[in-house]
UniProtKB/TrEMBL annotation:
Membrane-topology annotation of the record: Multi-pass membrane protein
Residue span(s) of domain Glycosyltransferase 2-like: 180-346
Species name: Parathermosynechococcus lividus PCC 6715
Transmembrane segments: 20-40, 72-89, 96-112, 124-148, 439-457, 463-481, 533-556, 576-596
Protein name, entry field: Cellulose synthase (UDP-forming)
Length: 735
């Protein structure tokens, strides 16, 4: 059956606007508040009915020290461990020791929670309290699995092996034929052009480049003819990208296959660093990280892209090197090299799911092939530029990651793979349900606030002794262990943003795993001349913020203004629910602000490249250096004392002296800066040589502005708070 999977499916007509649903929910909350005030009680249930009159005695094993000073020792120890991380290097040995300490504190915390803090006074209290404890136990299990799967990273080992293996490649002693596949559907030709140019610039002589065009576009065929690369298309789009790749397998015969998405730009040393591994006949695939040249759009919307790590850096920089130890890496669809013989032995790319990469890699692992991960950034890609595209991409990944667990007939994961590999699949399966878990953690404290049910029953000193040390260590060690690739509070912003759309998607997937749900291709090069609030996706979070503020005012404002009786019925643990509700509201508000897309007027990203140039304008010559540069223009800062006189037409030739190419450019505007002139240029004509020079200059290496960000946790936290209080993404336009 022929299908056109890449087109965006038509959305069913909305009978009721999301705003109407939000107003309805808010009206119901208001009605509840009025009823509460009418019957003269601050919560849905009487506090004395759903909470114990007194705390249950702690078991002897969990008794607090008798003197107050000793009760501070767990927190002091946790604080000392957290502070010591500033001087302890993060390596395989130190990570294992520190994370075992975290597990010890976590087990101590869960023991206390299970034996002493559950609220079973009322049937509703018991259901809510035990359910939340179950979610905490589940989180702890996933953390233990995470520690097990990242106990020994292979990044340094793989880099040493790459150094050893590439010697034969550079010397020409090992030079197998490599087919470079660039699958494309609807990417603009200018994006495809720079990928082709970069692939042609790879320092490897025995390579052939193929454009696999599922869009059957004449302009792409013309581009391939112009650049001298092979063009392959097919009459249908059956099986999406997997079908496209399988069709190309039948048309080519290279010993190795390198795959790049249409927006990924490989470095010149990509093949010299990866091909050498295939001298080892036991290796079937080499995957490298995905890294992106444009800022993470969440951070850019908040104006903190200069310091925040992208949401994928944690996975590619930390999780994948850990999985590599047990042959459990995930094939990620681009920037990898695979041995054709082994790929064809498992039947080619897996076609049953909406994505092909993870499933194909898993099929090869089931067959006993070795997939390895080289943790070196050897290519740059384009990440989604707005919230809708990001969300649709992640929802598609969620469906693909879930579908694999409904393919047991031909992907026998649980019966064939090793214990380590199965543990990785168990972690991923649990992570797929994270939207549901995150939604429960968001809504639960608010429900506790409005119903009067305490989810945990404990004193302040018990929290200080058991809970706070564990929380402190968890927050501190995540950032340290990942070398700044993951900041817990920033990670929660991503999870909160994805919680409700992900939960809806999960329900659809569980009802029909292989149904057509959402888009199956990520838009690239998206431009917009206006701000997008994206309230159609984030209104549940905004509603949660408003409801939390409203609920806190109804609950505690009534005490302050004398509407409710004094706090004689408040029970230990309710204050914790208040703090948790406030925290959730803060994170949800940051997520809403981060989802406000800013106008994107420039088609090409500008980078702070400083290189010497000469600008020939008529009979005059001006010297200077670029302050920033893109594929379509530059800001040229002239040497001291030089100014461009007014002329009718300001069009000249800009020569890049160090790189030895030139472009025709027009002066868009001029500005004086500290007694010097800065010319803002728009490129008019970029010939083939200039195009190749610009691609290598802009994307040809991991220069400082492309390197991953690794902020200190305190700095990152401060940046988040500043953007929370200045509402910059809401009131500021970015140029």
């Amino acid at each position: 059956m022929t299908q056109e999977p890449h087109s965006r499916p038509a959305s069913p007509p909305q009978l009721v606007s999301p705003w109407v649903w939000g107003f309805l929910v808010l009206s119901v909350l208001t009605l509840v508040a009025v009823l509460l005030a009418t019957v003269w009680q601050p919560t849905l249930f009487p506090i004395g009915l759903v909470n114990p009159d007194q705390l249950r005695p702690l078991p002897e094993l969990l008794q607090l020290p008798r003197d107050d000073l000793s009760q501070w020792w767990p927190l002091v120890i946790a604080a000392l461990v957290a502070l010591s991380l500033n001087i302890i290097p993060s390596n395989n040995v130190t990570r294992l020791v520190i994370r075992l300490i975290v597990i010890l504190f976590g087990f101590r915390y869960l023991l206390w929670r299970g034996l002493a803090t559950l609220n079973t006074t009322h049937w509703f209290s018991a259901i809510a309290s035990i359910s939340f404890y179950g979610l905490e136990v589940l989180y702890f299990i996933t953390y233990v699995l995470y520690v097990y799967q990242t106990a020994w990273l292979t990044d340094r080992q793989r880099s040493r092996e790459a150094n050893y293996y590439q010697a034969a490649v550079l010397a020409g002693e090992y030079c197998p034929s490599v087919d470079i596949f660039i699958p494309t559907y609807n990417e603009p030709p200018y994006i495809l052009r720079r990928t082709i140019v970069a692939c042609q610039g790879i320092n490897y002589r025995n390579k052939t480049i193929y454009i696999l065009d599922d869009g059957r576009r004449s302009e792409v065929a013309d581009l391939c003819a112009q650049l001298g690369v092979h063009y392959i298309t097919r009459p249908t789009n059956e099986h999406r990208k997997a079908g496209n790749l399988n069709h190309a397998l039948q048309q080519t015969n290279g010993e190795l296959i390198a795959v790049f998405d249409a927006d990924f730009i490989p470095f010149q040393n990509f093949l010299s660093r990866t091909v050498g591994f295939f001298q080892n006949d036991q290796i079937s695939m080499v995957q490298t990280p995905q890294h992106f040249f444009n800022p993470d759009y969440h951070a850019q919307n908040l104006g903190i892209e200069f310091m925040m790590p992208g949401d994928m850096e944690y996975f590619f920089g930390f999780i994948q090197p850990g999985r590599d130890f047990g042959n459990a890496i995930i094939c990620c669809g681009t920037s990898y090299v695979v041995r054709r013989r082994d790929l064809e032995a498992v039947g080619g790319y897996y076609t049953r799911c909406v994505v092909e990469d993870f499933q194909t890699g898993t099929k090869m692992q089931i067959a006993g092939y070795r997939l390895i991960y080289l943790n070196e950034i050897l290519s740059l890609g384009e990440s989604p530029r707005n919230f809708r595209d990001h969300l649709e991409q992640r929802l598609r990944w969620l469906q693909g990651n879930m579908q694999i667990y409904f393919c047991g007939d031909d992907l026998p994961i649980w019966s064939t793979l090793s214990w380590f590999q199965r543990s990785c699949h168990l972690s991923l399966l649990l992570y797929n349900f994270n939207p549901f878990t995150r939604a429960c953690f968001l809504v639960g404290p608010f429900v506790s606030l409005m119903t009067g049910v305490s989810l945990t029953v404990a004193t302040f000193w018990e929290y200080l002794y058991f809970a706070i040390p564990y929380t402190l260590l968890t927050l501190a060690t995540f950032s340290w262990a990942t070398e700044g690739r993951y900041f817990s509070l920033w990670g929660e912003v991503y999870e909160v943003m994805f919680a409700f759309p992900g939960m809806v998607q999960l329900i659809k997937i569980l009802r029909n795993p292989f149904g057509k749900i959402g888009s199956v291709v990520t838009n690239k090069g998206t431009l917009s001349n206006r701000k997008h609030l994206n309230l159609a996706f984030t209104w549940p979070l905004l509603l949660l913020v408003l409801a939390s503020v409203f609920g806190i005012f109804v609950r505690y404002g009534g005490y302050w203004f004398g509407v409710w009786p004094p706090l004689e019925y408040e029970r230990a643990g309710l204050e914790v629910m208040l703090a948790w509700t406030v925290y959730n509201a803060v994170i949800a508000l940051i997520a809403v602000l981060a989802a406000i897309d800013q106008p994107t007027r420039r088609q090409s990203d500008r980078f702070p490249i400083c290189t010497v140039c000469r600008f020939d304008l008529g009979s005059q010559t001006f010297w200077g250096y670029t302050r920033d540069l893109s594929e379509t223009g530059a800001a040229l800062l002239l040497t001291a004392g030089r100014q461009v006189p007014p002329q009718p037409i300001l069009t000249g030739t800009l020569t890049f002296l160090e790189q030895d190419f030139k472009v025709q450019a027009a002066v868009v505007r001029m500005r004086q800066e500290d007694e010097r002139s800065c010319l803002y240029l728009r490129f008019l004509e970029v010939d083939e040589a200039a195009s190749r020079g610009l691609v290598q200059l802009l994307y040809g290496g991991l220069t400082w502005w492309h390197k991953p960000k690794a902020p200190h946790a305190i700095d990152a936290f401060g940046a988040m708070l500043r953007r929370l209080f200045d509402f910059r993404s809401l009131f500021t336009l970015y140029s």
